[in-house]
Amino acid sequence: MRTMMILMWSVCAWPAVVRADDSQYQLGPDSMVKPGVPQGEVTEHVWRSKIFPGTIRRYSVYVPAQYDGSAPAAVMVFQDGHAYVDPQGQFRATTVMDNLIHEGAMPITIGIFIDPGHLSKDLPEKRGWRPTPANRSFEYDTLSDQYARFLLEEILPEVGQQYRLTDDPEMRAICGISSGGICAFTVAWERPDAFRKVLSHVGSFVNIRGGHNYPPMIRKGEKKPLRVFLQDGKNDLDNIHGNWPLANQQMAAALKFKGYDYQFVFGEGGHNGIHGGAILPDSLRWLWRDWQDHQAQ
User: Fold this and answer.
1) How far apart are CA 162 and CA 121, in angstroms?
2) Under 8 Å CB-to-CB from 216, ≥6 apart: which residues?
3) Integer Cα distance of 138 and 234 in angstroms
4) Which of 282, 182, 283 is nearest to 229 (CA)?
5) Is the pLDDT of residue 16 over 90?
């Protein structure tokens, strides 16, 4: 069991090697701190889950400067939260959110950046990709409602004790990279009454724990009220679980066939957050493009 767990972690964690094909993707001004743009506050927390028994994890909460509690805030959840919340990382999501909220391109949004659970008594010293033993693949790659319940029954109520969070599914988004990307889709697929906006970076829609079944499930199932943004690259992984570029293309084709509101950006990069980070501002603009019209209804 331990050997399998380590294997799952190694194929889904993002590699340290940056391919030459990734060098074309650069962070733009919306990923940088801008003078005059109010900066939100980030706090770090620890959670022991009952839905994933025996696990402990860190998570961060980003609260934009514009939040004053007078109205419920939109919500965006990020899997592998340590990668997205890092102000010097490949995504720099809180800086992007500062800029887009200030611009009006997305609503006042509280971000929740959640790490996978660790099957241990104590947390590793630092957040990161390879601390063990971790519960990452089980939580992220499993096709079930368990992770959605973890969010809806544990994390959102906990954060909601301090901040007013919306319960409008159109104002809730969920994001992740690799196995975190398929996890984001699974949450919305299982609970479209709770989450309807999905952003997946190099998503693991391959046969780790059955993710390759999503394209036929989308084609044959009832259409759900989801908006989905997929990003991948032709130099993504190809291993015993499947071919990531082909899997993401199959996802995009299925979403197109079924008439979903979707966007698929397919580039040259590998299994990392470089391309996804470079286009994160425009990805979020697309995902939230009509939020003001929705709030006016």
Assistant:
1) 27
2) 254
3) 26
4) 283
5) no
